[in-house]
Design goal:
This protein has eleven helices and 14 strands. By secondary structure, the protein is α/β, with parallel strands linked by helices. Helix 3 packs across helix 5 and helix 4 packs across helix 5.
């Protein structure tokens, strides 16, 4: 046996216990617009789609939740509008919420669905407006049509998963009157993971994980807890657009999700490296061992 063949065999052997452990378990993957925009588009998306299909074929139940922030900002710029953010959230007037729906439901969602379905008829695109999946209420008049989640109805996702499909969720919600709201995709991913009782919640973004010093790659936080993350937000180590992502990790893990992960979606096969290898990559968030039974 050649060295290369031996290495490949070793990788498969290393993956086996993880495949067994996660078979039949729901894994929610948030694919950020920054991850999609951060590399040469189609190649990055193709690699991501391959990983998702691999998860499905070894018995996992993946759910993809996607953002599209850079793509929304790009279209706004082309239409002569300037993107404005407060505490990491996009200020969304009536025209901007229409642009967000156009990009998320009409552009990004079909892109991801099509990339997955190159490998077979697995993916089905849905938005939070479908089947009452995401009910929303206005967060703050200053933010316009930015919504907070009032409830998640996971039935539509459960049915798709039971029928062995891969749901791909665009993060637009609606209130009881049908008014659409732009909802932070990180928050949606966490709420969906909790509603589905997911084993894992994985964020693919454009950073290698959380750092204690953003300028120092050696300060990467490999493992942490919700309490530690709250302290990092409080002391300003985590700020800006990372706050909704980290807050979602905290909430999800405290509400029954086994583990949350923040990975660099620009790294080829980051998902598989995290799921199927001993070392893993990025930052993992979990309850302290005394509370999670490990």
């Amino acid at each position: 046996m050649t060295d290369v063949a031996a290495q490949r065999a070793a990788i498969l052997v290393e993956a086996l216990p993880y495949i067994r452990r996660f078979a039949g378990r729901t894994i929610v993957v948030k694919y950020g617009g920054n991850a999609l925009a951060g590399t040469s588009g189609e190649d990055a998306l193709s690699v991501f789609a391959t990983d998702i299909v691999m998860m499905r074929l070894v018995g996992m139940r993946p759910v993809v939740v996607h953002g599209g922030g850079p793509q929304i900002s790009e279209l706004m710029g082309r239409l002569g509008k300037t993107a404005e953010f407060k505490d990491g959230l996009r200020v969304t007037d009536a025209e901007t919420v229409d642009i967000a729906r156009m990009v998320l439901i009409g552009q990004v969602n079909p892109q991801i669905v099509s990339a997955i379905n190159v490998h077979g008829d697995y993916a089905v695109g849905v938005s939070g407006e479908d089947g009452g999946l995401i009910r929303a209420v206005a967060r703050n008049p200053e933010l316009g049509f930015v919504g907070d989640i009032s409830s998640i109805n996971p039935d539509v996702l459960e049915r798709l998963l039971d029928d062995e499909f891969i749901p791909v969720v665009a993060t637009v919600g609606a209130d009881a009157e049908g008014q659409a709201f732009n909802i932070n995709a990180d928050t949606v991913a966490g709420e969906i993971a909790a509603a589905l009782g997911a084993e894992k919640l994985v964020y693919l973004t454009d950073i290698d994980g959380l750092r204690r010093d953003i300028a120092d790659a050696a300060s990467l936080i490999r493992q942490t807890t919700p309490d530690e993350l709250e302290q990092l937000i409080s002391d300003g180590t985590i700020d800006g657009g990372m706050i909704p992502k980290v807050a979602s990790c905290i909430s999800a893990v405290r509400n029954g999700v086994g583990r949350a992960h923040i990975l660099d979606g620009r790294t080829p096969h980051a998902l598989l490296l995290e799921l199927f290898t001993d070392a893993g990559v990025g930052t993992m968030v979990q309850m302290p061992a005394s509370q999670n039974g490990d």
